[in-house]
Write a structure and sequence with these properties.
homodimer, about 220 residues, alpha/beta, two-stranded antiparallel sheet, 6 helices, about 20% helix, about 25% strand
C-alpha cells in the first residue's frame, strides 16, 4: 500500500520553506541554507552523502524515516533547476552531481517537456508536463507498492495538500527567522483539506511535526 | 529600564494566532481555544485565576515569566471587546469579569474615545485613540520603570513589530492546525525589522520561541 509522504521539509519560525531571491548561488534563497542545521548533523544525512559519524536521536530518527521505503520521488521544477521557463541548458542535470541521493525514479513537474535523464546509482529524472494527478499516477506505477515522497518545494507541496493527496507530512521547524520567501502553508487551509497533527516532538535543533490526512 | 515584551502569544503550526470568525461565543475564532492547552494546565495560570495545583516545568516557566515585572499592558481593541466600530454597549468591561487578571493599567488601542474604567484588583482600562507611539508613551509613564507587555492580538503585535518597538517576543507554537484566521507574522519581515531567535525550547505541549530585537 503506497503512502504519499512529505519528509523533513523544514520551515522557519515564521513559516518559510525558502528565503527570498533563490538563485544558483542561493538555491534555498537568502538565509535558506540555515534551515537545515538539524538535518546536516544527523548520522543518516552523513551516510546518505558518503560520510561517517553524525548524531543519533530524535533528529536522526526523522531523517532516517524520510529515506525508508521510498519507491519514487516527485519534485517541483524549481527544486531540480535554478532556471525558469523553457530548458535552455540541457547539460543541467540537477543540483546533486553524477550520483544523486535518490536512487529511484524521480518525477519532475514542469511545463516544458524533456527526455528522461539516467544518472548513476539508479536515479532517473522523468519530466512530467501533465498535472499533479498525472505525476502521482506515474510515480505510483514506478514505486510498485513502495511509498512516494514529495520533495518540494513549497508550491508543489501546496498543490498536493489542497487536493488532499498527501497522506502524511513531516515538517521540521527550525530556530531561525527568514522574514520573507516561500511560505509553506500559503494558500492552504489545512483543516478544510482534512489534516490534523498526530505527532509533535522537539529537539534543541528543531520541532518535528507530523500531519496526517484524517481519512487515512 | 523598561522592556517592551510579548509573552505567551500562541500560534498554531500553520502560524495562526486566532481562528476564523471571532465572536462573543468564539473570542479566539473557531478552534482558537485549542491554542492554549499548554498554558491552561500550568501552575501559574491556575494561580492567576485563583485555582490550586497545576503543572510545573518548561511551560510553567514561560507562563510565569509573562506575569513578572509587568507595569502596564497594551491591548488591541479586538482583545478587549467582541464589538467593532463605535462603542454601542458601554456596559461591556472586557472578557475578564469584575477583577481582571492584569492588576495594572491597561491601554486599549481604539479609534473611538471612551472614559477609563476602573476595575477591582487595581486594573484600569484606558482607551487610547492615538497611534502606537502614543500608547507606548502612556504605558511607559504608567509602568514607571517596570516592563510593558503587549497582549495582542496579532494585528496589534504586527504594528509594533514592523516599527521595531518590541524588545522581546515569546511565542508558543501549539500542536494544532487552524487552517485560517489571523496569522501572527502576516505583513511582518522579522529579519528586516531586526529580530532573531535567541531561545528555542520544547515541551510535549508546545515549542517556546523567544525572538529579540538585535539592537537591544
Amino acid at each position: 500500500m503506497t503512502t504519499v509522504r512529505v519528509d523533513s521539509f523544514t520551515i522557519s519560525i515564521d513559516g518559510y520553506g525558502a528565503g527570498p531571491n533563490q538563485s544558483l548561488d542561493n538555491p534555498l534563497g537568502i538565509g535558506g541554507e540555515e534551515l537545515h542545521g538539524w538535518l546536516l548533523s544527523t548520522r543518516t544525512w552523513r551516510q546518505v552523502h558518503g560520510k561517517e559519524g553524525g548524531e543519533t536521536g530524535v533528529d536522526d530518527d526523522f531523517a532516517a524515516r524520510g529515506f525508508g521505503n521510498v519507491g519514487a520521488w516527485i519534485l517541483g521544477r524549481n527544486m531540480f533547476a535554478p532556471s525558469r521557463g523553457p530548458w535552455s541548458d540541457m547539460s543541467w542535470k540537477g543540483w546533486w552531481g553524477k550520483n544523486p541521493p535518490y536512487h529511484v525514479p524521480v518525477f519532475v513537474l514542469t511545463h516544458y517537456a524533456r527526455p528522461p535523464i539516467e544518472m548513476e546509482g539508479n536515479t532517473t529524472f522523468h519530466f512530467v508536463t501533465g498535472d499533479i494527478d498525472d505525476a502521482l499516477r506515474q510515480a505510483r506505477e514506478a514505486a510498485a507498492g513502495m511509498d512516494i515522497r514529495i520533495g518540494g518545494g513549497a508550491n508543489t507541496i501546496q498543490q498536493f495538500l489542497r487536493a488532499g493527496l498527501i497522506d502524511e507530512l513531516h515538517v521540521a521547524i527550525s530556530p531561525i527567522v527568514l522574514g520573507s520567501g516561500e511560505r509553506l502553508f500559503e494558500g492552504v487551509d489545512l483543516r478544510a483539506s482534512g489534516y490534523q497533527c498526530v505527532q509533535f516532538v522537539g529537539s534543541k535543533n528543531a520541532t518535528h511535526v507530523v500531519l496526517r490526512h484524517a481519512a487515512r
